[in-house]
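Recap from last week: sequence in, structure out.
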Amino acid sequence: MADQLAGQWYADATGLGPLLPDDRVETTLRTIHARNVRGFAGGRMGAVNGTRPDGSIDGSSEQSAEVWVGTSYALAAFMIGRGLLDEGWETARGVAAVTYERGLWFRTPEAYDRDGNFRASIYLRPLAIWAIEEALRRRPATR
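Predicted structure tokens:
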């Protein structure tokens, strides 16, 4: 699942510290990126909610085969906050491409699928995009 580490993301964002070993979090984020982002539409649509152990998209429900805009932005922020900059930006870029290049600017949906079908316009969870700014602010400055 694309959001399986949501609790750790919240802990990071609020300064509560690690709930899980850092190496396992990084491995999981890299696996999510490989399967749910890169393994879905060539990495050009954000993170699909569910994949099966063989890497295929979980089609057992409508929701598992969808990208949830807010969840993908939160995942991108988590990746960026954990130093996986390329992975985080690729995840966010895919969501932005779908929502903004298709003309959904002011009616950002909760979810969409590979075919471009979307639902729940004007949804608020996509405001998670602002978590990317927070993750960047929280990261140590590099020179």
